[in-house]
Specification:
2 copies of one chain form a homodimer. Chain A has 288 residues and is an alpha/beta fold. Chain A folds into 2 domains: 173 residues, 3-Layer(aba) Sandwich (Rossmann fold); 93 residues, 2-Layer Sandwich (Pantoate--beta-alanine Ligase, Chain: A,domain 2), CATH 3.30.1300. Helix content of chain A is 37%, strand content 21%. In chain A, the strands form 2 sheets. A 6-stranded parallel beta sheet of chain A has the order 1-4-3-2-6-7, sandwiched between helices. In chain A, strand 3, helix 3 and strand 4 form a beta-alpha-beta unit. In chain A, helix 1 packs across helix 6 and helix 6 packs across helix 7. The longest helix of chain A has 16 residues. The two termini of chain A are 27 Å apart. At the A-B interface, strand 5, helix 6 and helix 7 of A face strand 5, helix 6 and helix 7 of B. Strand 5 of chain A pairs antiparallel with strand 5 of chain B.
Chain lengths: 288, 288
């Protein structure tokens, strides 16, 4: 079984011990409810040279708005630990909210421009909560390779920016989205879907694929591409938060023409569940 | 001569090399215009176990308001290097503004409550600039003992808070104020004073000393203590920004009664120069 640690100090001690033996540390920050997408991050950290991998599991209250699903977010620690064990994870870091935010806590890390659009436009404190907790994880873990899923594309770009701007000794990996056999992006929130919603949820993949195919045939008009993507999603979902095309690096608008460095991003609601997905235009969407 | 480094990467390489030999690293963040107060921080880092000391010299634009003295802030690099050499400093880190804030930079670290009062009340973005640059210095240096002067009392408390809140592997030292023979707190900004202003500037020390003596005789009324301190300062300075008594740990108001854990803080202007000073009530003010 992986070593279980609960405080920043314990995580640091574990990672320092690895480094003292010349082993590089990989870090996979998660909110638990682990699925094979998370496990692909463990593999990615190893591929990038980490001999030891720590997975953190913390449902971070700072990144949920009062109206969001903090209370009902799935918590599956025994299954998570078994999954980490099966993938030979070395350390699992499970801090309590009090370990992370003791009384008097008052510090935040904020990345400004890249967090203002898309997810940040409708979830104003979300990314500030993400960067604050990830900065704490990085500081506690020490120099490491940290793997994030590109499913949370804007989060990945935000963390990359934070690391660069704050001179953190972290190599940030952005890993390909893991998809179910029908194309649905793996997500802990997929557990919220009833069978009917689950069947309809594939429409996001269908919409993005349609836009990407049109892009491959030479279509460059943003309006046409987003309309192509929106059609199946609008039919299957209850509402669309956004279907957008943005610069793949800084997420600024790509108004005029979608070029090679463009990403299509989608957020939509089905029942009480909000799902997101994305793809680089011009790259093949890989399943399985 | 100390090794001169200019980029975060170079600083990290130098500090990593020390640690690889089992040597602990001390860090003394400064804005240059070094004086013996700074050198007492070098000594404090060594006393706390650092075998190697790095001094950073960076006039941080992020912590100056447009109306403040960024452009005229004293820059004395040759003298600073000579002083570091005389004190056997191992590394001097002199980044450019472009090294620290390359195009696209957009991340800030903010400590909230403790920065809202006193200096923060009149200098709204100041501490955000301080914590951002100090976070960058800590991340680049890696695990270290970092020495700060208590002359910038609120800054010291703010950085302590940041380190604790963000789980940074840094031991923050708050070092006693170094004073000139007449009691004036050493400060790079003392260079701005003409001989007449320099003579009058001692009034801050006189005011704080008067309050502290009254405290020693049992006086506990905040109004009486601040009035005692203000009288000589008002006579010698052109204006007083604040004469305050605050909780020594979190800097909240101590309205009713000044207890053992209270600090008196002063900011006042003489000519075009703004000076600050402070003392724990009940502790002897040490000169020389």
């Amino acid at each position: 079984m992986p070593t279980l640690v609960h405080t920043p100090r314990e995580l640091r001690a574990a990672c320092d011990a690895f480094r003292a033996r010349g082993e590089r540390v990989g870090l996979v920050p998660t909110m638990g409810a682990l699925h094979e997408g998370h496990m692909s991050l463990v593999a990615a950290a190893r591929n990038a040279g980490a001999q030891r991998v720590a997975v953190s599991i913390f449902v971070n209250p700072l990144q949920f708005a009062p109206t969001e699903d903090l209370a009902k977010y799935p918590r599956t620690l025994p299954e998570d630990l078994a999954r980490c064990d099966a993938h030979r994870v070395d350390v699992v870091y499970v801090p309590s909210a009090l370990d992370m935010y003791p009384p008097g806590f008052q510090t935040h890390v904020e990345v400004e421009q890249v967090t203002r659009v898309l997810e940040g436009a409708t979830r104003p404190a979300h990314f500030r909560g993400v960067t604050t907790v990830v900065a704490k994880l990085f500081n506690a873990a020490g120099p490491c390779v940290a793997a994030f899923g590109q499913k949370d594309y804007q989060q990945w770009r935000t963390i990359e920016r934070m690391v660069r701007d704050l001179d953190m000794p972290v190599n940030v990996l952005g890993c390909a989205i893991a998809r179910e056999p029908d194309g649905l992006a793996m997500s802990s929130r997929n557990r919220y879907l009833n069978p009917d919603e689950r069947a309809r949820a594939v429409a996001i993949y269908a919409g993005i694929s349609a836009a990407n195919e049109a892009f491959g045939r030479g279509e460059r008009a943003v309006g046409t591409l987003t309309t192509l993507a929106s059609r199946p999603i609008a039919a299957a979902f209850d509402s669309i938060d956004y279907v957008a095309i943005a610069d793949a690096a800084d997420l600024t608008d790509r108004q005029v023409e979608a070029g090679e460095q463009a990403v299509m991003l989608v957020a939509a609601r089905i029942g009480k569940t909000r799902l997101i997905d994305n793809a680089r235009l011009g790259e093949r969407l890989v399943i399985g």
